[in-house]
């Protein structure tokens, strides 16, 4: 185990059994002209975490540890889409409607792709998730179990929706979860701050939280001692 300084107390990272999960870093949430932007959100907040997320991905690639990228994506006929996601939202800007980057949150559409700067490479896992959480209707738990993964490090957007939901799902399934706080973001700063507090509250009721620099420094120090 490698102890990473974190809140509420050091995160016990298990090097051979840890994977990175990058949640929904998709054009439709992050780029000007996409779904998030057309809803009136300030997408520059989300765009700003691309460098930290890229550095986190680079760190896992250097270590040779598994990386999972998720996309919020639905089938073109919406048959896999939970009803609430179809019926709620702004008319004309709902899942399956046509936006500037193709049909909103539909698999294969331009806006549904992961941003170029964080594009997955061969060997990394990419899952399309119809829910907000990464475990609902994806089969990822079984794949992670087969890989011997017990620890998950999280990044991505948005902190209080798909990231927090996925962490809660993971926590209930027994994974030890660490959120990298400068590699996650929300359109609403107060929601990000609250989500982070909730995750680490009550002795880590959902998991741990730390900045990327703590993970980088600790792993570098650990390697220097080998
Ligand atoms: C949302 C997400 N916010 N990826 N999706 O609808 O958090």
Brief overview:
With 226 residues, this protein is of the alpha/beta class.
The percentage of residues in β strands lies in 15-25%
Instruction: Round the mean pLDDT to the nearest integer and report it.
Output: 97
Q: Please report the first level of CATH classification, the CATH class.
A: Alpha Beta
Shape: globular
What is the H/E order? EEEHHHHEHEEEHEHEHEH
SS elements, strand count? 10
Fraction of helical residues: 25-40%
How many structural domains can be distinguished in the coordinates?
A: 1
The number of helices is: 9
CATH 4th-level superfamily: Isochorismatase-like
Distance between the ends:
14 Å
CATH topology call: Rossmann fold
The SS-based structural class is alpha/beta
CATH 2nd-level architecture: 3-Layer(aba) Sandwich
Oligomer: single chain
Query: Going across the major beta sheet, what is the strand order?
Result: 7-4-3-8-9-10
* Radius of gyration of CA atoms, rounded to a whole number: 17 Å
Instruction: Characterize the main sheet.
Output: 6 strands, parallel
Layout of helices and strands:
Elements: E1 2-4, E2 11-13, E3 18-23, H1 27-30, H2 35-38, H3 44-47, H4 50-63, E4 67-72, H5 83-87, E5 98-99, E6 102-103, E7 125-129, H6 140-146, E8 151-157, H7 159-172, E9 176-185, H8 189-204, E10 208-210, H9 212-224
Parallel strand pairs: 3-4, 3-8, 4-7, 8-9, 9-10
Antiparallel strand pairs: 1-2, 5-6
The structure holds dicarbonimidic diamide (C5J).
